[in-house]
Amino acid sequence: MILFAAFLLLKSRISFLPRDPAVGDARKRIRAAKKRARKAAGDRDARVKALLDAAQIAREDLGRPRLAASYALRASRANPNHAGAITLMAETFREAKRYRAAEKFLWRRLDGPTGAGYDAAFEQLLALYDGPMHRRERAQALRTMRNRQTNPPPA
Q: In CATH, what class is 23-150?
């Protein structure tokens, strides 16, 4: 019975329980970044920067990679070819151990136009295959494909 009462106290987050002030500060900074993102609806670059700031705060200060991934995903939707958004998205997915989701996201980015985002997606996909997914043969196939794109065989 006492254990159940203690559980209920913790779940209800009674105000007398000590709270970490750094967490409260990080949440305030995330709210401020989200507000900047809403205000910058017309300015795509400012919106992406604000959402990436929120993602970095969630990742580094709160230690919440899934929350960081959600903000990075919003940033990558605002600008699908933004290399920083793609890189942060892939890294936070890896930290959250959502390897298949990261792989799917990166392949979708490779399906788009070439540019900085394409290159970032390619590098992150290689890191994913060489790293936690242990798919060395896929990584080698990607490297071969990349070499053929940059150095086409003579006709």
A: mainly alpha
